[in-house]
Amino acid sequence: MIAPNKSSPTAPPGFAVAVVRYSLPALLAEVQLERRASAFAGEKLDQVEIAKLFNKPRPRRVLKTRK
Predict the structure, then answer these.
(1) What is the pTM of this model?
(2) What's residue 1's pLDDT?
(3) b vs e for 10-35, b when ≥16 Cβ sit within 10 Å of the residue's Cβ?
(4) What is the pLDDT of residue 2?
(5) Pairwise CA distance, residues 29 & 35, whole Å
(6) Residue predicted with more confidence, 65 or 67
(7) For residues 51 and 40, is the Cβ–Cβ distance under 8 A?
(8) Which of 21, 23, 24, 41 is the most exposed place for a label (fewest CB within 10 A)?
(9) CA separation (Å) from 53 to 10, 29, 46, 47, 56?
(10) Rounded to whole angstroms, how far apart are CA atoms 1 and 18?
(11) What are the two backbone dihedrals, phi and then psi, of residue 33, each rounded to the nearest 5 degrees?
């Protein structure tokens, strides 16, 4: 594991690696707020509409001719 104060060998010079921890209750509270927001519901709708654009169109049924 890399120490938080030392630079990573793959990182550009001047950048230090730091460990960031968030509390789980704080993250869950933020997720609940985002889910209640109307923007989240809009994003879900947008995903459905976007998926429709990339679906293959179903072949149309050929109508039988009446004799």
Answers:
(1) 0.34
(2) 45
(3) eeeeeeeeeeeeeeeeeeeeeeeeee
(4) 47
(5) 10
(6) 65
(7) no
(8) 21
(9) 40, 34, 11, 10, 8
(10) 12
(11) -65, -40
> What digits encode the pLDDT tens for the residues 3-57?
555 555 566 677 777 787 889 999 999 988 888 877 766 666 677 788 888 887 7
Contacts of 6 (CB under 8 A, 6+ apart): 16, 17
Q: At what angle do helices 38-54 and 24-36 cross, to 10 degrees?
A: 70
The residue count for the chain:
67
The first and second tokens of residue 65, run together, are: 């001719």
**Cβ atoms of 29 and 40 closer than 8 Å:** no
Q: In the numeric block, which tokens belong to residue 11?
A: 């990182």
